[in-house]
Amino acid sequence: MTRAVLDSCVLYSASLRDLFMRLAVGFVFQPKWTMQIHEEWMRNVLKNRPDLTIQQLERTRVLMDQWGRDWHVYGYESLVTTLELPDVDDRHVLAAAIASKTPIIVTFNLSDFPEVAISPHGIRALHPDSFLLELLQSSREPFISAVKSHRTALKNPPRTPEEYLNQLTENGLHATSKALTPIVDQI
């Protein structure tokens, strides 16, 4: 099964976080993260969403940890200071990928993980859209099932399949939305 470290920017959006967790629950891929990644996305959500509480996000974190199976990366801390990236605050993400022998980092911030810095470790950084397309191609049926589960769980407001595809596009998942358009009746 494909393993990927999810950067905090991917977990920031509730919609994307839920989609990635449904893909994990459906055994489409194995997510990896650290407590530091949890703390980062939660801190940023609280900063920008004063209507949410730490207790609500802690509940989400607990559920993620429960359903993420083998998510927790340990023993990466000593690697952090040995790595060089454009943003020193992202070194912990690369260190987590190295320590867990995870070949993919999923991030919106591709420029923060230049190929020259990560490829020597056998790691590549992928935009969430590219990563989702790879999952769709490699695990089509479970992927579609997870997407349908995600769409039908949306209640406030509920989304038609077409509205759901528009939401994916609004979340920066243009190619994924386009790839799902021909099979919209299945989601």
Characterize the structure shown:
This protein is α/β, with parallel strands linked by helices and 187 residues long. The protein folds into two domains: 3-132, 3-Layer(aba) Sandwich (Rossmann fold), CATH 3.40.50.1010; 139-186, no CATH class. 55% of the residues lie in helices and 7% in strands. The chain has eleven helices and four strands. The protein has helices at residues 8-11, 14-25, 35-48, 54-67, 77-80, 91-99, 115-118, 128-138, 140-153, 161-170, 174-180, and strands at residues 3-6, 30-32, 104-106, 124-126. It has a four-stranded parallel β-sheet with strand order 2-1-3-4, sandwiched between helices. Helix 2 (14-25) crosses helix 9 (140-153), helix 8 (128-138) crosses helix 9 (140-153) and helix 8 runs parallel beside helix 11. It is globular. It starts with a strand and ends in a 7-residue tail after the last helix. The mean pLDDT is 95.
Relevant terms:
Rossmann fold; four-stranded parallel sheet; alpha/beta; 187 residues; 55% helix; 2 domains; globular
Low-pLDDT residue intervals, each spanning 5 or more residues: none
In whole angstroms, how far apart are the ends? 23 Å
Count the strands? 4
Mean pLDDT over all positions: 95
Fold-level CATH name of the largest domain: Rossmann fold
**What gross morphology would you assign?**
globular
Over all CA atoms, what is the radius of gyration?
Answer: 16 Å
Structural class: alpha/beta
- Amount of beta strand: 5-15%
Order of helices and strands: EHHEHHHHEHEHHHH
